Amino acid sequence: MGTISLKNISKSFGSTQVLNNLNVDINDGEFLTLVGPSGCGKSTLLRIIAGLEQQTSGDVLIDNKNVNRVRASERDLAMVFQSYALYPHLTVRRNLETPLRLRDYNAFERLPLIGNFSPSKKEKTESINQLVNKTSETLKISELLDRKPGQLSGGQRQRVALGRAMVREPVAFLMDEPLSNLDAALRVHMRSELSELHNSLKTTFVYVTHDQAEALTMSSRMAVMIDGNLLQLDTPQEVYDNPSSLSVAQFVGSPKINIFKGTADSGGTVGFLNVNLKRKSSESNTDLHIGIRPEHLEITNENNENTFSGTVAYRENLGSDIFFHVNIEDGSNKIIVRGLPQFTHQISNGSSVNIKRVSDKALLFNQAGMRVQFTNA
Amino acid sequence: MEAKQYIGEGWKHAILIIGAIVVMLPFYMMVSMSLKSQQEIQSISGGLIGAQETQTFPVCVKTGYSEETCTMKPYQYNYWFAFEKAPIPRYLMNGVIVTLSIFIIQVLVALPCAYALAKLRFYGREFVFSMVLFCLLIPVHGIALPLYVMLAQAGLVDTYSALILPWTISVFGIFLMRQFFMTVPDELIDAARMDGMGEYAIVWKVMLPTAIPALLAFAIFSVVAHWNDYFWPRMVITGNRDLFTPPLGIREFRGGIDSDEFGPMMASIVTVTVPLIVAFIIAQKRFIEGITLTGMK
């Protein structure tokens, strides 16, 4: 079992409010990602779950037991840190053994030399060895067991750090940006390995990252946090397709979503630039932000009431896609449009293009940044 | 271009060599005098080791040994007589007992204290740390008299405790280790907490091993200072010769009825200095690492 519930969690350092009345229920076996820009309080939230930080108010429940007063080591959670935090003076084997020794041996058995006289120690040592060997085989680090952390590469250290968390077979894993010290290629590779590991362990993972791509690729659900508030908690696809607010829409997705200024007239008809949407807004007579993702815009030869034109300022070729950074004619916006290479390879910087939107894909937000629904959606 | 570079380098080396000579000269004199006879020392002749003529030494005879025993080469005589006249091994042992006890207790106090000041959040931490800095400014000699009075009231004058107790809390040690612990990442400590270590276990099992270079630097500062200290032992060891530390022991050779005999005196000084020099040479590489690591002088 590994359910974690956070109820009305608030945290402030002095007069600075870092977390603002958060409620999250994490299901057993779930891969939940806490994602947000740096400084949004996601790491603090993780440390509160771990017990390394005390919340100012609210409750943490693990397996429905209130653990507010339970020490970090007794919550049966394991944590993987950004800088790996391996003991630099111990071999990999000893690094993996340490949490087990501290859990299984009693105070007498931990004493040097005379601890060996305890009758039950031999048995415990054997089970520790077995667990360490099993874990190191799973993570393919068996041949590294006698080295010191200083002699390992970044990726290997990452595995050892994972191993040290795994040996205890905890109720949940907490991970604080574990991949951000790796190079780009290794990071993408480790994403898939972590997902596989999660599938085989079937343990709850709580994963903190500022990289929305990691959140989108790995998690079963993602929690988007900005400025200490939980803005949306849903599956990655739902967060991407149906963001609850302008900030979430802007944070999730790369390149960023395009935002146009527009209005809704008294009948609810939404217009921006020279384009009118077919669907009607539920809020009328107001200024709106219209969000359209780059892949929902396309470059076209047509020129009609559904298209608008602009000049290509910069062309970003990623091989599989080309993103065009386009200045809109009235100078109000700079937007990003995705083009497929086979249709758009001849377009260069400075050319003027017509842009058409894919219908039914626009998102509406009001002046406060909250989502506005279409009436006949 | 090349020649100019050599001249520039030459200047630097010339200055450094002069500096080295100035520093080394007293040591040269010390070793040389510990090998030569009294006449050669007083007439400043005989180079480094003198003629080493077998002779009978009058001071030795006057002390009560037979003429036969007192006839030998000067270097033999100097070292033999130094050990005969004063219980130098006893002094050396006292030095070891005092410096090691001081160092071990200093570490026992400074490490947890530095850890708390560097890594734990508690009310008044900044105040405590500023007190530590403030204490760094107090010269030992300023508080020597009150310390002596307190020890005397406690009846501790002329004991090992008098030599050891006043130095067991080293604010310099606390400061040095605190600065080092600031560079240890918090995540390492959090990881240890997650693994189930208590705060004391963290200090001894995680912080201590990572702080070995800094600790070694501190060890050399501490051991050198207390091994060579003359001022404090001179104050609190008033009568009991069995408690003399090496610097007090050297004083035995100064003056007296049989006038100054420099040979045995220098021999005893060499004996007292050598252990430190050997220790420093062994620890030298680590010592310099420790210094650069903490940016301290």
Give a quick rundown of the structure:
The complex is a heterodimer of chains A (377) and B (297). Chain A has 377 residues and is an alpha+beta fold.
| Count of helical stretches of chain B | 15
What is the class of the largest domain in chain A in the CATH system?
Alpha Beta
CATH architecture of the largest domain in chain B: Orthogonal Bundle
Low-confidence stretches of chain B: 291-297
Tally of individual domains of chain A: 2
N-to-C span of chain A: 40 Å
Which strand-content bin applies to the residues of chain B?
Answer: under 5%
CATH superfamily of the largest domain in chain A: P-loop containing nucleotide triphosphate hydrolases
Kindly describe this structure.
- The complex is a heterodimer of chains A (377) and B (297).
- By secondary structure, chain A is α+β, with helices and mostly antiparallel strands.
- Chain A has two domains: 4-246, Rossmann fold, CATH 3.40.50; 256-372, OB fold (Dihydrolipoamide Acetyltransferase, E2P) (Beta Barrel), CATH 2.40.50.140.
- Chain A has helices at 42-50, 92-104, 121-138, 154-166, 184-201, 212-218, 236-241, 246-251, 341-344; strands at 4-13, 16-26, 31-35, 57-62, 65-66, 77-80, 172-176, 204-209, 221-226, 229-234, 258-264, 269-272, 275-280, 286-292, 297-300, 307-317, 322-328, 334-339, 352-357, 363-365, 371-372.
- The longest helix of chain A has 18 residues, at 121-138.
- Chain A is elongated and about 90 Å long.
- Chain B has 297 residues and is an all-alpha fold.
- Chain B folds into two domains: 2-85, no CATH class; 88-294, MetI-like fold (Orthogonal Bundle), CATH 1.10.3720.
- Chain B contains 15 helices and two strands.
- Chain B has helices at 2-35, 38-42, 58-63, 74-85, 88-119, 125-136, 140-153, 160-164, 171-182, 186-195, 199-210, 212-228, 231-236, 246-251, 262-294, and strands spanning 55-56, 71-72.
- A two-stranded antiparallel sheet of chain B has the order 1-2.
- Chain B is globular and about 75 Å long.
- In chain B, 32% of the residues are buried.
- The interface between A and B is medium-sized, with 22 and 14 residues.
